[in-house]
């Protein structure tokens, strides 16, 4: 995910070095689905949703969630969207830009990063609802 301008100052000055270190640790592959940085892939839709196929190779089809090999499919029979180039990003697992310990950072492709963030946002929303309900309980009266 690109760094938002308002968060720019929250990143450490040596972010480029940190980023390089995490990418090297990951072997320049997504640490979730194993796609390589710069690889050209197509993501499946409809019958092939949840999978991807590489431009290189012999029609291998991989699971989008963890990169395991599912089988083979002719490119002409694969139901895909469009070719995209994988660009690895560095995710902060706790979503705090200042926390740059290696164990808090993960090299992820765009899809895995979005999926990780979506999961986090859902969890945050759940906690917010729970907190709101708890406050509601505080003000509940016996007349309810
Ligand atoms: Zn990925």
**Could you tell me which ligands this complex binds, including any ions or cofactors?**
zinc ion
Average of the residue pLDDT scores: 90
Helix content: 25-40%
Strand content: 15-25%
Tell me the count of domains. Answer: 1
Query: Major sheet: order of its strands?
Result: 4-3-2-1-5
Order of helices and strands: HEEEEEEEH
Main structural class: alpha+beta
Radius of gyration: 20 Å
Distance between the termini: 46 Å
The counted number of beta strands is 7
The main sheet comes to: 5 strands, antiparallel
Low-confidence runs (pLDDT<50, min 5 residues)? none
Topology:
Blueprint: H1 15-25, E1 40-44, E2 51-54, E3 60-63, E4 69-72, E5 80-85, E6 89-92, E7 105-108, H2 110-139
Antiparallel strand pairs: 1-2, 1-5, 2-3, 3-4, 6-7
Residues 30, 32-33, 35, 108-109, 111-112 line the site of zinc ion.
